[in-house]
Amino acid sequence: MSHPEGPSGFDDLPFSPTDETIHTLHVDDDESFADLVGTFLEREREQLTVTTESSAEAGMQVLRQDSVDCVVSDYEMPGQDGLDFLERVRDDHPDLPFILFTGRGDEEIASEAITAGVTEYLQKGTGRDQYTVLANRVENLVEKYRAEREVFRGFQALESAQEGIGILDDRGEYVYLNEAYADVYDADRETLLGTHWERLYPNAEVERFREEILPALEANGTWSGTSAGETTDGDRVIQDLSLTLLDDGGHVCVLRDVTERVEREEALRREQRFLETALNSLDDLFYVFDDDLTYVRWNDEFESAIGYSAEEIRELTPMDLFAGQTKALIEREIDRILEDRETVTVEADLVAKDGTTHPYEFTGVPVVDQDEVIGVVGIGRDRSS
């Protein structure tokens, strides 16, 4: 799908949706008539404010300097007529409401005005009713102009969003999606428009949507979680997905591709499981403590040998596993590892929680990160056999 079409040139015109005042520029070489029109328009509609000018050049100057919501212009003016003025306005403000308010009812002029992009062609009449008609036209055109502008700004926000945003109708078919949404599936959005959402999910995930996700969406009006889709090439896409139910039975999808993050997390979990399996297969004690002497990792053999639970081990220091002079020896050797960055081997009796002692040969190696010792890796080998 191409970018949503809407009014262009809006950024040139300051506008606040809370401002109900309608700023109208009226250009007519008959200054007394122009003043009369301005007076009647402001009486007809309280929110109308009218600036009058007597030439196209003066009108252009107002447009360059001020915020204008609608232009009303005569046709027959010296120098530049209303059509010339219209063409100049359209160069800078292609969608600004422009009413050609003329005393001539020439069909040729009307045709030229339409070709040039006039919004309304209104013939001057007699009596006060003509000002009521003109005020109605100004009000209606500006209301439509502002509404279109807000819709266009909304589409701009959707298009610039980093998240993928899609809108589905009550049949589950895409009626809108931004580029970010199509990019998640490595697709052109033109090819996705009008297709069913099931096209972007494997069968197992479609079943999950129908049995779990969509019923929750119907019940609560919203749903958010993780889902697994497929690109047009069949590659898996892990997505953080949020769904919001619409009044017409459709829903809005907001998603972010988190495939790389999830795959990194899965790879890290696999590495951790592999490491834990490898360490737990050792007959030796394995342990790691940081520079605060707090145990941060150990294998099953270590936990079994000392008899403490995992929660208790986190509260221990290495010296708590030794007694008497051996405790002082171990403290000195740990200082050597942390302060002098030496690898140390020492024989010592380990004291278990139940008070029994077991002879081990301990080897401690400093763990260095960016030239700073942050802990110790230790191995304990049973000397009893």
Description:
This protein has 385 residues and is α/β, with parallel strands linked by helices. The chain has 3 domains: 10-159, Response regulator (Rossmann fold, 3-Layer(aba) Sandwich); 164-261, Beta-Lactamase, CATH 3.30.450.20; 282-382, PAS domain (Beta-Lactamase, 2-Layer Sandwich). The longest helix is centred in the middle third of the chain and has 32 residues, at 129-160. The chain contains 12 helices and 15 strands. The strands form 3 sheets. The chain has a 5-stranded parallel β-sheet, sandwiched between helices. The chain has helices at residues 31-44, 56-65, 82-92, 107-116, 129-160, 179-184, 189-192, 203-220, 259-280, 300-306, 310-313, 324-340; strands at residues 22-27, 48-53, 70-73, 98-102, 120-123, 164-168, 174-177, 222-230, 236-245, 251-257, 285-290, 295-298, 344-351, 357-369, 372-382.
Q: First CA to last CA: what distance?
A: 76 Å
The stretches of 5 or more residues where confidence is low (pLDDT under 50) are 1-18
Query: How many helix segments?
Result: 12
Helix/strand structural class: alpha/beta
Largest beta sheet: strand ordering: 2-1-3-4-5
Our estimate of the beta-strand percent is 25-35%
Return the CATH topology of the largest domain: Rossmann fold
As a percent range, the share of helical residues equals 40-55%
Element string (H = helix, E = strand): EHEHEHEHEHEEHHHEEEHEEHHHEEE
Mean pLDDT: 87
What would CATH call the homologous superfamily of the largest domain?
A: Response regulator
CATH secondary-structure class of the largest domain: Alpha Beta
CATH architecture of the largest domain: 3-Layer(aba) Sandwich
Tell me the domain tally. 3
Number of strands: 15
Reported for the largest beta sheet, the result is:
5 strands, parallel
Note the overall shape.
Answer: elongated
Gyration radius over CA: 39 Å
